[in-house]
Design goal:
Layout lengths: L11 E4 L2 E7 L3 E8 L4 E5 L5 E7 L2 E5 L2 E5 L4 E4 L5 E5 L4 E8 L5
Antiparallel strand pairs: 1-2, 2-3, 3-10, 4-9, 5-8, 5-10, 6-7, 6-9
Length: 105
């Protein structure tokens, strides 16, 4: 069991431009991520659901043809098997993301 205080969470580099802290359980993965300004994921899909909330900053997310700019306290749900992605703008964005744990993870 893990308890986090998000304002003090120590994030480590996950990928270039993305800092994160993850808790991996038997069935779920919870990740706090800070994504640098000017980054983009042009789209991918996976066989599990994913959801989260924007903590700070702004991010544009899409699920197939549906696109939305999100800010603090706004949530997203990404259904399994649907193409989705995101982009950040002129400052970093911090999100708390939860997904089902993939069988191969």
């Amino acid at each position: 069991m893990a308890f986090w205080d998000l304002k003090d969470a120590q994030l480590a580099e996950f990928r270039p431009g993305i800092m994160s802290k993850a808790e991996i359980g038997a069935n779920l993965i919870m990740v706090c991520m800070e994504i640098a300004a000017g980054k983009e994921d042009t789209g991918h899909e996976h066989p599990f659901d994913q959801c989260g909330i924007v903590l700070d900053g702004q991010i544009e997310m899409f699920v197939e043809d549906d696109r939305k700019k999100l800010g603090p306290n706004q949530c997203y749900f990404l259904p399994a098997g649907k193409r989705h992605g995101w982009k950040t703008f002129d400052r970093p964005v911090k999100i708390l993301d939860v997904s089902a744990k993939p069988p191969s993870f």
